[in-house]
């Protein structure tokens, strides 16, 4: 989904999210495991205030596992519990239910002590477009028993969906916009396919990809495109020109750029994490 964000859209998205926050116990903030920083909305903390909060790193099947570990540590160090999921493969309902119960522990115990009946935990998923909100929601929700139906507290037209007997999810995710804080953030969002509009020239994004893979995953480039050592001495631009010829695209390096970008997005160059989190940063 391509969304053009204007100030009016942002204000409306915040308003909707703020309304929904009143009826949930916890926020599941989805970030793309390949870009755990660039796919976060910088306003999120301000919007959700002190609501309990779990970071769910989606698409972890595409990300560098070592980096994902570092990021989870880094989030935790900042006081944010985090987990990584592959919504296309494994069932994560149990894990997510358990973590959520852990996070809310005190609150739930407190309610019981006050004599309140046990009730399901209610959560909302939030994140930028394409981060995997609907995929995860579908994965977490038992479709046969999905709709819990109208309940007090839910904004008109919205539904609680049953994930487990202990967890219910609001059917309407909160949509946040990415922030193009700097050029690299924009290029990282474009390279992963988080944004698919033409805001960024494909050759710029392809050059960013070449530079990045040369630095962090050189072997992946060499293997995928059968490069030699001599090719590695070329500048990024000359390497892109070489690949263009190799793809049989003459001097159409825009087309070649798009090919390279698609390869990266599809994981043809292996798993990668664009936003780097060094183990040293976690000492
Ligand atoms: P959204 O609701 O947040 O907008 O995202 P949505 O669930 O529609 O997911 C966007 C794309 O990301 C989908 O691909 C979906 O299959 C993919 N995706 C979501 N979670 C994961 C995951 O954990 N691993 C992998 N590998 N992919 C995931 P799509 O429909 O094919 O669209 P696209 O690939 O053309 O973007």
UniProtKB/TrEMBL annotation:
Cellular localization per UniProt: Cytoplasm
Any one Gene Ontology BP term: translation
One GO MF term: GTP binding
The keyword Nucleotide-binding is assigned to this record: yes
SUPFAM superfamilies on file: P-loop containing nucleoside triphosphate hydrolases
Gene3D superfamilies: 1.10.1580.10, P-loop containing nucleotide triphosphate hydrolases
Entry keywords, A to Z: Cytoplasm, GTP-binding, Nucleotide-binding
Domain CP-type G span(s) in chain numbering: 14-178
InterPro entries registered for this protein in UniProt: G_CP_dom (IPR030378), GTP-bd (IPR006073), GTP-bd_ortho_bundle_sf (IPR023179), GTP-bd_ribosome_bgen (IPR019991), GTPase_MTG1 (IPR016478), P-loop_NTPase (IPR027417)
Its job: Required for a late step of 50S ribosomal subunit assembly. Has GTPase activity.
Family: Belongs to the TRAFAC class YlqF/YawG GTPase family. MTG1 subfamily.
Name of the protein described by the UniProt record: Ribosome biogenesis GTPase A
Encoding gene (name): ylqF
């Amino acid at each position: 989904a391509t969304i053009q964000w204007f100030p009016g859209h942002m204000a409306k998205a915040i308003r909707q999210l703020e309304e929904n926050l009143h009826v949930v116990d916890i926020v599941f903030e989805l970030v793309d495991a390949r870009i755990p920083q660039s796919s976060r909305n910088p306003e999120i903390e301000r919007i959700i205030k002190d609501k309990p909060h779990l970071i769910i790193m989606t698409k972890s099947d595409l990300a560098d596992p070592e980096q994902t570990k570092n990021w989870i540590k880094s989030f935790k160090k900042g006081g944010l519990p985090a987990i990584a999921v592959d919504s296309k493969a494994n069932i994560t309902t149990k894990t997510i239910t358990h973590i959520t119960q852990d996070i809310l522990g005190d609150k739930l115990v407190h309610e019981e002590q006050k004599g309140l009946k046990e009730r399901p935990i209610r959560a909302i998923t939030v994140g930028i477009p394409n981060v995997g909100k609907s995929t995860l929601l579908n994965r977490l929700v038992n479709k046969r028993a999905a709709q819990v139906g109208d309940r007090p507290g839910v904004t008109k037209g919205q539904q609680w969906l049953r994930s487990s007997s202990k967890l219910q999810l609001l059917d309407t995710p909160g949509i946040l916009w990415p922030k193009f804080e700097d050029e690299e953030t924009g290029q990282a969002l474009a390279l992963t396919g988080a944004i698919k509009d033409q805001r960024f020239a494909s050759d710029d994004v392809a050059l960013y990809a070449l530079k990045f893979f040369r630095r962090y995953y050189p072997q992946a480039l060499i293997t995928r495109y059968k490069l030699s050592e001599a090719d590695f001495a070329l500048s990024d631009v000359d390497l892109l020109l070489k690949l263009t010829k190799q793809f049989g695209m003459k001097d159409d390096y825009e087309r070649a750029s798009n090919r390279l970008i698609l390869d990266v997005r599809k994981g043809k160059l292996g798993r990668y994490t664009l936003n780097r989190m060094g183990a040293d940063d976690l000492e």
